[in-house]
Amino acid sequence: MNLKTYRAGTMAQALAEVKKDLGKDAVILHTRVHREGTLLGLGGKQVVEITASDQAPARRERTRAKPGTFAPMEFPRGERIGTLAEPHPVPGAGATGAPVAASSRTMTPRAVIEVPAPEKPPALDPGPGPASDRPLGPGPKALAVSAPLAPVDAAAAASLHAELASIRRLVGQVLHVTRANAGQSAVMAAGGVPDVLASLFARLLDAGVSRELADEVIGGVRDDLTQSELADEAVARLGVQRRLAKLLPVVGAIGPAGRSSAGKPLTIALIGPTGVGKTTTIGKLAAAYKLRQGKRVGLVTCDTYRIAAVEQLRVYASIIGVPLKVALAPQDVAGACADLRECDVVIVDTPGRGQRDHARLDELSACVKAAAPDQTHLVLSTGVAESVLLAAAERFKVAGPDRLLLTKLDEAVHLGPIVNVVGRAGLPVSYVTTGQEVPDHIELANSDRLAGLVLDGATAQGWGL
User: Fold this and answer.
1) How far apart (Å, rounded) are the C-alpha atoms in residues 335 and 332?
2) What is the DSSP string of 230-260?
3) pTM of the model
């Protein structure tokens, strides 16, 4: 007999494996359903185990009982239900002794069991008082009496509810900090984390902040605040926001616009991947300097590769009322900037480049070098995956950016990756954009404001330049 055990996620899958391996005549001997990979009885995945054979086990001899005694009927394990037993003559079946077929197994006359009439159990008087004080009746034949499980008084009920609430809190913390694709948090493993901090830790993880940075923030807040302060949700949240703000350095002010002592205007270059909103952001910056600060602004574009890119910037320049110069090659950038030397601010739009396009990235670096900017903003869209942001920040280092400009905060699903990217890039944040409207929907970056947006998961507008 070939005996095998099969494991699968569902009963149907396991039965399919049995049929495939042992054929349609396979005999199921044992089944078991359990869960694997659980934590405190929670989570995990269901596993179905089936033990099967390619043939039924051999029949065992049945024990014949003597008349007047009890004899258990043995049914061989794995034998199919519904087969007919071999016929046996039964008294009273007729003169011919015709066999009587049973729907399952039948017994021979020699295996007839004499069953005595059951004794009627004595009636029990429930009587007053708790179930533990009630009489169980005389002798060992008395029946057990069931009683409802309930606290005996209000104090016991309150204790039970408090214990259940404590268990729920513990399980809640485990569920908050346990993730299938990461190890246990160092802060949580150390113990002593109040419920408020555990909730804020989970909020950071849900927002997309890396586990290492979330550990750093929560651990710092736990060390800074007293136990009474940690019990106050508002105080603990403010402590987390301040710690988070320290991980989000910003430029903090708009650079002074005007001609330098060498007679050179403030020159700003924007670099970044395609589709991050560089051209729209240039229109917003130009409008802010021209319309709100009254500065003379000039625009230079090197983006002659993207269809209609020059025309888009030309429309912005016409609406705002600023001159626009087009540089067809890196060697033309210096001349275009020189033509705008009478301006207070010159903003250079560079062509978007993919982070894997090494040759084009070298060309972009040449454009930036020719412009000799005072500020080089690496523009990144927060609406893409964190891995894309990190790859772009790494590859565009060849162009020498000195600050980050984050766009499309209104399109981001989670803002936590901002914390991770800023930390990896090692650059302060200059501006953030929160929509498409020109000249609105651009703000000077503020650490506390960004930290609050990460915690709240919302994008607030209204801080213009």
Assistant:
1) 5
2) HH-HHHHHHHHHHHHHHTS-B--SPPPPS--
3) 0.58
What angle is formed at CA 18 by the lines to CA 16 and CA 22, rounded to 5 degrees?
130
Average pLDDT of every residue of the chain: 75
The sign of the CA dihedral 132, 135, 141, 143 is negative
> Over 24-56, what HEC string results?
CCCEEEEEEEEEECCECCECCEEEEEEEEECCC
Residue 126 burial by Cβ neighbours in a 10 Å radius (0-12, 13-18, 19+): exposed
How far apart are alpha carbons 341 and 265 in whole angstroms? Answer: 6
Q: How far is CA 218 from CA 165, 229, 243, 448, in A?
A: 24, 14, 8, 17
Contact 216, 426 (CB under 8 A): no
**DSSP H or E run through 367:** helix 358-371
Cis check: omega of the bond before 439, within 30 degrees of 0: yes
Which helix or strand (DSSP H or E) is residue 217 part of? helix 211-224
Residue with tokens 């995990």: 44
- Amino acid 331: pLDDT: 87
CA distance linking residue 8 with residue 48, whole number of Å: 5
H or E element, residue 455: helix 447-456
Task: Report the C-alpha gap between 73 and 77 in whole angstroms.
Answer: 12
Q: How far apart are CA 164 and CA 157, in angstroms?
A: 11
Structure tokens at 433: 């954009």
Residue 319 vs residues 291, 313, 316, 341: alpha-carbon distances, Å = 11, 10, 5, 21
Q: What is the percentage of the chain residues whose pLDDT exceeds 70?
A: 66
CA 448/CA 456 separation, integer angstroms? 12
The answer to whether 392 and 381 are in contact (CB under 8 A) is no
Q: Which two tokens stand for residue 351?
A: 């062509």
Q: Quote the CA–CA distance of 340 and 432 in Å, as a whole number.
A: 27
Per the structure block, which two tokens stand in for 252? 């903090």
pLDDT means per 10 residues, the chain with 465 residues, are: 83 83 79 75 76 70 50 47 42 44 42 51 53 50 56 79 69 47 48 78 91 91 88 91 94 74 85 87 90 90 72 86 88 90 91 66 86 92 89 88 92 88 91 83 91 77 49
